[in-house]
Design goal:
Blueprint: E1 4-22, E2 29-33, E3 39-40, E4 45-46, E5 50-53, E6 60-75, E7 95-97, H1 104-114, H2 119-131, H3 140-150, H4 158-164, H5 169-180, H6 184-202, H7 208-215, H8 220-231, H9 235-241
Antiparallel strand pairs: 1-6, 2-5, 2-6, 3-4, 3-6, 5-7
Length: about 250
């Protein structure tokens, strides 16, 4: 459905100070920790047991200890708005615990999921829960259209996109921000970055010059500057230190 992109599950025992980099992916997520939550440099604290993760502005680190077990719901960019009672912009660059969502049913879902041993059954329960919570408004199709346009290698300008969406420039930015949780210019920037990750995943020997061209950057220096800002590394450094894959463009 156009609301949830995918689910992922991670479980590992005996982890001791394992650190991974977390980068902007272009989607909001709902995270259930069934084991020990990791320590995050975003908040300088351990992550909540269950929380909604908004769009991230840049990279951060997670450090895992002991037993790690988590189930994660990755929403489509336009999908999360259908399930939560607070404006999406309030999630920006934050972890928002389910207790702070003003929705008792989300807390009840958390309690049920944390008591379940079978992860596939947990995903089925989450799926049923969200199927019954879908609420959209008359702007939903506009936002779907805008997201599809911004996913293109060379998208139109935000002003042109607002015209295509039959909205003023100011209206479009406000509605997009309220529905997606990030402004359209920054969203397009993250999608371009995720596209570069996708090319690095499928072509291990791609040069920075070709990567910049394929992903839609102005030139190589633009790619290097943006990549460094979002990951802390150049593309070559990232490939040497981290797994190169896109969380948005799934292969």
């Amino acid at each position: 459905m156009p609301f949830i992109s995918y689910y992922w599950i991670f479980e590992e025992d005996g982890i001791n100070n394992y650190t991974e980099i977390v980068i902007p992916i272009g989607c909001m997520q709902l995270v259930f920790h069934m084991g020990t939550p990791p320590f995050s440099t975003l908040t300088n604290d351990y992550q909540p047991i269950t929380f909604v993760e908004g769009h991230m502005a840049s990279h951060s680190n997670l450090t895992y200890h002991n037993h790690c077990k988590q189930v994660v719901v990755v929403f489509t960019p336009q999908g999360s708005h259908a399930f939560f009672n607070i404006p999406m912009l309030e999630f920006y660059n934050r972890y928002v615990s389910v207790e702070d969502l003003n929705d008792k049913s989300q807390v009840e879902l958390r309690d049920k999921i944390l008591d379940m041993q079978d992860k596939c059954s947990a995903i089925s329960m989450i799926e049923d829960f969200f199927m019954n919570k879908i609420q959209t408004n008359y702007n939903f199709n506009r936002i779907c259209f805008a997201v599809n346009e911004l996913e293109k290698v060379n998208p139109v300008s935000i002003k042109e996109l607002s015209k295509k969406s039959c909205l003023s420039y100011k209206q479009f930015k406000r509605i997009f921000y309220n529905h997606v949780g990030i402004n359209p210019k920054e969203f397009a920037r993250i999608i371009r970055f995720q596209r570069s990750m996708n090319y690095m995943q499928t072509n291990k020997n791609i040069t920075s010059t070709l990567l910049a061209e394929k992903a839609g950057y102005y030139d190589e220096s633009h790619l290097l500057r943006e990549f460094k800002l979002l990951t802390g590394y150049t593309p070559n450094e990232y490939a040497l230190n981290c797994l190169t894959y896109s969380d948005y463009f799934i292969v």
